[in-house]
Design a protein that fits this description.
SH3 type barrels, single chain, mainly beta, 6-stranded antiparallel beta sheet
Length: 71
């Protein structure tokens, strides 16, 4: 299975993703929640950082990871 980059509207809760925004790789996390249209996505990153909200205007890119890629 290969990684696929998608918009927020193609995500679902519990999915492992790598997030890129503003030209930076923000790391991997899990989709915690999202609006029905995917315009707002909350990602939980590992470590001490709490979940982070991404708006459609942030132009974040989500790369869906194979289930074994998240620890």
């Amino acid at each position: 299975m290969t990684a696929t980059t998608v918009k927020g509207s193609a995500l679902w809760r519990g999915q492992g993703v790598r997030v890129q925004a503003g030209g930076h790789d923000l790391g991997t996390g899990v989709v915690d929640d999202l609006t029905e249209d995917g315009s707002i996505v909350w990602i939980v990153f590992g470590g001490a950082e709490p979940r982070r909200m991404f708006l459609e205007e942030d132009a974040a890119r989500y790369t869906v990871l194979p289930p074994t890629s998240i620890r």
